[in-house]
Amino acid sequence: MNYKRFEDLPVWNAAIDLAVEIYALTDRPQFRRQRSLRDQIERAAVSVSNNIAEGFERGTNNELLNFLYISRGSAGEVRSMLCLLERLPAFGSLHPEIAPLQARSENCSRQLKGWSQSLQNSNLRGERHVNQRTKRIEKAAREREEFLEELAEIRAKGNTNKTKN
Predict the structure, then answer these.
(1) Phi-psi category of 42—alpha, beta or left, where left has phi over 0 and alpha has psi -120 to 50?
(2) Which of 22, 73, 89, 162 could form a disulfide with 45 if both were Cys (CB 3.0 to 4.6 A apart)?
(3) Alpha helix locations (H) across the chain?
(4) Rounded distance between C-alpha atoms, residue 19 and residue 121, angstroms
């Protein structure tokens, strides 16, 4: 499926949900005296969705890939900080809330990895490189594939009729 807007991407939506939940976590009283820790985990969480958006808007697959890796790194940073919270006694009461957030950030990482791998295996260079010539070539290739499919269907029907006779 081709997405026209980053807001429609499932991974961007998962990243936004992660950031919203991280902000809900850091709004808890345990974070009042831990401003730097709170700021760091919030910035890392927001970085996941922001880098997806920025890469998507750049228009080339190479730039998109670069930002997807940055985004994945930020998701890893969120997970690392959640592991730290689990080990700090001051956050012991938050353990039931931390595990689902770790799973959510890991889910974002998996989606980003899958998307990155598919882009690496693609011959497409990105929207910025699409011009009238490439559009004509792509259209001709699609029409050729459709013609070959129709031809295969005709041959299959012909073979079916021969076996009936």
Answers:
(1) alpha
(2) 22
(3) 10-26, 35-58, 61-87, 95-120, 132-164
(4) 30
A 10 A CB-CB count for 155 gives 10
Q: Measure CA 105 to chain center.
A: 12
As a whole number of angstroms, the distance between CA 88 and CA 119 comes to: 39
Torsion sign (Cα): 132, 134, 139, 143: positive
Specify the pTM.
0.73
Token pair, residue 164, equals 């009936």
For residues 71 and 112, the answer to whether their CB atoms sit within 8 Å is: yes
The listed CATH number (3.40.50.1820, 1.20.1440.60, 3.40.50.300, 3.40.980.10) that belongs to domain 6-129: 1.20.1440.60
The per-residue pLDDT for range 109-123, each reduced to its tens digit, is 999 999 999 988 876
